[in-house]
From TrEMBL:
It holds the Pfam family LysR_substrate. The keyword Ribonucleoprotein does not apply. Keywords: Activator, DNA-binding, Plasmid, Transcription, Transcription regulation. The keyword Transcription applies. It comes from the Bacteria. Belongs to the LysR transcriptional regulatory family. InterPro entries: LysR_HTH_N, LysR_subst-bd, WH-like_DNA-bd_sf, WH_DNA-bd_sf. GO terms for molecular function: DNA binding; DNA-binding transcription factor activity. Residues 1-58 form the HTH lysR-type domain. GO terms for biological process: regulation of DNA-templated transcription initiation. This is LysR family transcriptional regulator.
């Protein structure tokens, strides 16, 4: 027995006629009679009496009709409730955004979610990209932007953009002045200030160095982007960033950069969520809004 059979039975009782019920329900009369017969066999009793004026429910049939009406009402209410969840997303949604992308994403995302879905309780977590991977996999984040090109087990990812990496140094640095680019081998020979593993730019640099059979000279490891840029501006070393990241922040006016060549190093930006763990309606709605913002940035040059 299923909900469809209960609906058929209610139709027979309400119309007092199998033929009229069949017409209203748009079911062939023989098929409806067969459904009724099977229900009576399942319950082991007669559910309706056939008379010259139609059918009337037995006492058992009346009890079934009452309970069936209540059950169908609950099912319809449940369906409406579930559809409302999708139509009006509500509840928590947690998004991870790397510090380097926060200035162009966090406020627009918060405003768009607030205006479009005010019942979503958005939480944005900013940090270095290496942490984002761990937090998505552990369930602390519903989705996050991450960097990298390698296979990421346990994650479903979407390509957002690619950025070219630059060697960044003090604005008055004579080594960088008057040049258009710097070879990767020369950049590796300089004292670098980088975040520790497994953060995105560190892995990109070390992967490129591995392919070039070279080593990376790390003078300082600091897991804080603005502090890295401040130390570089003070002449404590160099770092590797995209041009977009180098041009934002308190130390931006005191920095300069050159694109890295031979080889060129690109950083891939991905939008990721845990594979095999369904996102809530609130998280899916937030994902859609964030995807739209990212698409707009890539189209109008917002990454540069």
């Amino acid at each position: 027995m299923d909900v469809r059979q209960l609906r058929y039975f209610l139709g027979i009782v309400e119309h007092g006629s199998i033929s009229r019920a069949a017409e209203t329900l748009r079911v062939a009369q023989p098929a409806l009679s067969l459904h009724l017969k099977r229900m009576e066999e399942d319950f082991g009793c007669q559910l309706v009496l056939r008379t010259a004026r139609g059918v009337v429910p037995t006492e058992s049939g009346r009890r079934l009709a009452q309970r069936a009406a209540a059950l169908i009402g609950q099912m319809d209410g449940l369906r409406d409730e579930v559809r409302a969840v999708e139509a009006v997303p509500a509840g928590p949604a947690t998004v991870g955004i790397p510090t380097s992308l926060g200035p162009v994403l966090t406020v627009p995302l918060a405003l768009a979610v607030r205006r479009t879905h005010p019942q979503i309780r958005l939480r944005v977590v900013e940090g270095l990209s290496g942490h984002m991977l761990e937090w998505v996999l552990s369930g602390q984040l519903d989705l996050a932007l991450v960097f990298g090109t390698k296979e990421m087990g346990g994650l479903e990812t979407e390509l957002v953009a690619r950025e070219r990496l630059h060697l960044v140094g003090p604005a008055d640095d004579p080594l960088l002045r008057g040049r258009n680019a710097i070879p990767f081998a020369e950049a590796l020979s300089l004292p670098l200030i980088l975040p520790g593993r497994p953060h995105g730019v560190r892995e990109e640099v070390e992967h490129a160095a591995l392919l070039a059979r070279a080593s990376v000279t790390v003078a300082l490891e600091i897991d804080a982007l603005e502090q890295i840029k401040a130390l570089v501006a003070e002449g404590c070393g160099y770092t590797v960033l995209s041009d977009r990241v180098a041009r934002h922040g308190a130390a931006a006016e005191r920095l300069t950069g050159l694109p890295i060549v031979d080889p060129q190093i690109d950083r891939t930006i991905l939008l990721a969520h845990a594979a095999g763990r369904p996102m809530s309606a609130a998280a899916r709605a937030t994902h859609g809004i964030l995807s739209g913002i990212l698409a707009g940035l890539t189209q109008d040059g917002g990454w540069r």
